[in-house]
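Sequence in, structure out.
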Amino acid sequence: MRSFDPAPLYRATVGFDQMADLMDRLLTNEAPESGYPPYNIEKVDENEYRISLAVAGFSADELNVEVKQSQLLVTARKAEEEAERTYLHRGIAQRAFERRFHLADHVRVSGARHVDGMLHVDLVREVPEALKPRTIEISRGDGAPAHQQVEGTAVRQGTDRKTAA
């Protein structure tokens, strides 16, 4: 049963349709994702993240990390064992898995490493210069810049900073 209607988001916002689609996809996901393998998502720095997955029993050759569109896909396939083994208790799950993570805009994978049964995938957010905040010069109504000449120095209205003309 669906309890979230994204229609109000579409009516009241511009450019957030991807976020509404993502929320809709998450809420209507009929096949719940298993908890295997367990993982952590860590914020390392302001623009750096790390996803750590517990992949005990898998070698680096049996793991695959790839990015498709805006999804990080981590998969593992255990190689066939040459010798038949008889387990009295098998508590280490070495089953194949596929784990997907949706990446935000401008987030890219910067590297991956396999250490002590953990797979660490490092991510970095790189916002393009064109999307970073910038200051816009405000002009007066007559088209002239909003600064005046004062004794050989230019002073912007509304500030007390002086710059040489």
